[in-house]
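Below is a filled-in request sheet from our internal design queue. Each sheet records the structural input a requester submitted and the sequence that came back. We keep these sheets so that new team members can see what a complete request looks like end to end.

REQUESTER: design group, bay 2
PRIORITY: normal
MODE: inverse folding
CHAIN LENGTH: 325
BACKBONE (tokenized):
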């Protein structure tokens, strides 16, 4: 049986973090260690972690490495470096796991070709369960390079399926594979949109499998923070980096022939959440959003930067396999 390290990056959410940690202690398959990576300046969280260590740490070791650098990737990198078990699980600090969560994920590692397993996040906002239309596809990339996640939706099936990537707050990887792939330094550390996609495509590009199990579920509560410190907000800088990172990742991983279709799709067509020329014109006709032009400008600037950086990456890494996409 594989051993499990659970890594939880946390910032300014001590009450949510406590619920998160307690859900790990009632698992039908207990983790072997819990690594809570906090900011060194976040005193309330660090005090709460010490309290949890005193109360719960006798059964499962609870470690508290700290980082000083802001952003979402530094605590993930820190946690990955400290983890000692076979499988590293990433878990959000504002989530609670279903009791059979780890048991379901661990069961898939009996297949030696599986390098990562993830599941569904059941979403709540301000205490209310969010309802989404059911989806029949999850974690796929279309032939023209659009990324379809749907890992937060109700699904029309309950069986495990192959995946191209996993949801960051409900994902696990074989430690040696994750360490060999690593986190791409070209991704912006403050607004690390798409890191899960990049990790997933890097792993399957090396010939490994990823599995999405819709019954490996966690409740995700989208908790607030006093300040922005780990995830992107809604300003133009965030719009820029969301567009930049997605184009960079697709340009880095897609086979050369499909890059042409992706270029046409992302720049000329796009969609409301990631504007292209056509989607911008449609939104302009249908919407009175005064920030639309600024968002379009930031999106296009980000996409051009992503395309340039992907081309530079491919020149520096000509032997990288784009994988079976």
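RETURNED SEQUENCE:
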């Amino acid at each position: 049986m594989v051993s499990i390290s659970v890594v939880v990056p946390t910032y300014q959410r001590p009450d949510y973090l406590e619920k998160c940690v307690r859900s790990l202690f009632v698992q039908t398959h207990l983790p072997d260690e819990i690594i809570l990576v906090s900011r060194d300046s976040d005193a309330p969280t660090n005090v709460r972690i010490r309290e949890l260590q005193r109360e719960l740490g006798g059964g499962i070791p609870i470690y508290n490495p700290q980082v000083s650098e802001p952003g979402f990737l530094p605590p993930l990198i820190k946690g990955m470096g400290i983890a000692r078990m076979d499988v590293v699980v990433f878990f959000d600090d504002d989530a609670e796991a279903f009791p059979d969560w780890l048991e379901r994920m661990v069961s898939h590692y009996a297949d030696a070709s599986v390098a990562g397993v993830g599941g569904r996040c059941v979403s709540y906002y301000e205490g209310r369960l969010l309802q989404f239309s059911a989806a029949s596809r999850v974690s796929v990339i279309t032939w023209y390079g659009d990324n379809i996640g749907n890992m937060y939706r109700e699904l029309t099936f309950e069986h495990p399926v192959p995946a191209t990537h996993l949801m960051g707050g409900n994902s696990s990887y074989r430690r040696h594979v994750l360490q060999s792939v690593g986190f791409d330094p070209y991704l912006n550390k403050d607004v690390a949109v798409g890191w899960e996609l990049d990790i997933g495509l890097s792993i399957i590009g090396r010939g490994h499998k990823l599995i999405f199990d819709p019954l490996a579920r966690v409740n995700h509560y989208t908790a607030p923070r006093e300040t922005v410190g780990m995830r992107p907000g809604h300003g133009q800088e965030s719009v820029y980096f969301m567009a930049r990172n997605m184009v960079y990742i697709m340009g880095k991983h897609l086979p050369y022939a499909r890059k042409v279709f992706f270029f046409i799709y992302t720049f000329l067509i796009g969609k409301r959440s990631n504007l292209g020329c056509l989607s911008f014109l449609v939104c302009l006709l249908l919407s009175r959003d005064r920030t639309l032009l600024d968002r379009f400008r930031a999106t296009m600037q980000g996409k051009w930067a992503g395309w340039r950086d992907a081309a530079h990456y491919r020149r520096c890494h000509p032997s990288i396999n784009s994988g079976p996409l």
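SHEET NOTES:
- Residues 227-233 have pLDDT under 50 and may be disordered.
- The chain has two domains: 4-220, 236-316.
FILED BY: M.R.
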